[in-house]
Amino acid sequence: MFSGSIVALITPFNSEGEVDYTSLKNLVEHHISAGSDGIVAVGTTGESATLTIEEHVKVVTKVVEFADGRIPVIAGTGANATHESVTFSRLLNNSGIAGCLSVTPYYNKPTQEGLFQHYKAIAEASDVPLILYNVPGRTSVDLLPETVARLAKIENIVALKDATGDLSRIAIHRELCGEDFILLSGDDSTGLEFVKQGGDGVISVTNNIAAREMAMIFDLASKKEYPEAELINQRLMTLHKNLFVESSPIPVKWAALQLGLIEHGGLRLPLTELSESARPIVAQALEDAGIESLN
């Protein structure tokens, strides 16, 4: 259902700070032509925390409209209030999305039982397949494998995006959740190794600016042609790292602007544009990866 190279899509803004739907459409077309296997619209990389509910729903529905059935669209529905995630799920239930991706509540630091009840409530609010998202480095809460296993028994909870970078969890999740449960990496640096050890794919920040290369890597990996995949991935390794030289999506938005993928590189406060000192670091990573401007 969900596999390969899935982009955690940035949300482009215009010079007034409003969503730039022209650039958004161009991004969707870019990923379709580059061979991406799916799009996450308004996930955390899409600055979901700074969009209103109305903007959030509109961006997702526009991505579905632009994709026109040519690529699966997954809606970000994460929030640190369960009722807000439930609202997103209900509003998007009949929008044409292929699934929802919901990050663990941030700041609240719920218990494992709280996490279970949170995701159970989201799953019950919609028939759409739900992907759990664990990124403790950003949320300060860790969705433990035993809790994932409990949630995997709920019919429409079908996958986990694991951004812990802990490859030892792959075998644990597979044993606890079964072969049909989908495991997706949320860590670009270890994404290929994640698939080599039994994962199904990656939801990627790097994919925003290296879509064709990422598609090639995970297509090769699906055929177990690992040496060829490793060669491409090694070329992107500095990029995987340096797209996080400042808080994501600050560096990836700057890179997308340099490459001509978006018209403006703006972010919404409290995020600000990439610092002058970090720009050469990201520029060098683009050069090392052989990623060239589309202009």
Automatic annotation (TrEMBL):
It comes from the Bacteria. The record marks T44, Y107 as: Part of a proton relay during catalysis. Its EC number is 4.3.3.7. CDD domains: DHDPS. One of its GO terms (molecular function) is 4-hydroxy-tetrahydrodipicolinate synthase activity. Homotetramer; dimer of dimers. This is 4-hydroxy-tetrahydrodipicolinate synthase.
